[in-house]
Amino acid sequence: MFPWTIHPKNIDKGCSKPVTLAAPHSEEQLNKIFDCFDSNGDGHLSWEELKSAYNILGMSFPGLRALKALRVADENRDGYISQKEFIKLTRKNPRK
């Protein structure tokens, strides 16, 4: 289950404007969400950033969810989720 496609929430984690998380998203909206979660601005989401994102979204077991997201989305196995991988992840049907 990927919360940014399921649970509508507002976040304001250092972003200039809160991002509304409700499906479906345009690529521009997904890029804004990615930028909010990418706290160090390096263009990749680390396990720590993913865990923080799940925490912000109020999800249980944020560390485990972050690991699952990395396993599913990290196509090149570098230990991070790129913006391209993030967009693919959010487009996946979580029930498949």
Automatic annotation (TrEMBL):
UniProt domain EF-hand: residue ranges: 25-60, 61-96
Keyword Cell membrane listed: no
Any one GO molecular-function label of the UniProt entry: calcium ion binding
A Pfam cross-reference name: EF-hand_7
UniProt entry keywords in alphabetical sequence: Calcium
Domain of life: Eukaryota
Name the record gives this protein: EF-hand domain-containing protein
Organism of this sequence: Salix brachista
